[in-house]
Amino acid sequence: MWDIIVNGDLEDKATPSGEQSSPPVPKTAKQWATKRNQERIKSILLLAIPDEYLLKFHNVHDAKSLWAAIKSRFGAYVSKEDINHKFLRSLPPSWSQITLIMRNKADIDEVDIDDLYNNLMVYEDELKRSSGFVV
Fold first, then answer.
1. Which domain, by its residues, includes 64?
2. One domain for residues 88 and 57
3. What is the rounded CA–CA span in Å between residue 39 and residue 60?
4. Is residue 6 within 8 Å of 64, Cβ to Cβ?
């Protein structure tokens, strides 16, 4: 479904003047499935918008355009610190000691998610070698 948000429909819905037109009526089973997925994704995105802003997004016809409008209106920046903490919280309980150490590091807000992941893999390898610990 994320592909539909990022890539939109395969069909170009822009008119010659460059304006967005309403989607055509589906004719094949594949087109119906795409339309259903578009509507489902659009509904999910609309649920994330606070009620007082919903009218501003009413005229958006597809999920890709809606996502772009949401990003431009609300921004889509998430700090590295938030990403890292969410990632650490998502790990299974067997990682609790390691995640506690990582969360208390002073530079957690500056570490890239890839570096954090690589650091966790190094800890895992060291633990496996030293104690036979299985994560």
1. 2-74
2. no
3. 11
4. yes
What angle do the packed helices 80-89 and 113-131 form, to 10 degrees? Answer: 30
Tally Cβ neighbours within 10 Å of residue 21.
11
Asked if 18 and 51 sit in the same domain, the reply is yes
Whole-number pLDDT of residue 12: 44
User: Tell me, what DSSP letter sits at residue 91?
Assistant: S
Which pLDDT belongs to residue 135?
Answer: 53
Tell me, yes or no, whether 85 and 68 share the same domain. no
Residue 23 confidence (pLDDT) above 80: no
Residues 86 and 67 grouped into a single domain: no
d(CA 122, CA 68): 38
| pLDDT greater than 60 at residue 69 | yes
Q: How far apart are CA 132 and CA 135, in angstroms?
A: 10
The answer to whether the beta carbons of residues 88 and 104 sit under 8 Å apart is no
Closest CA to 36 of 49, 26, 22: 26
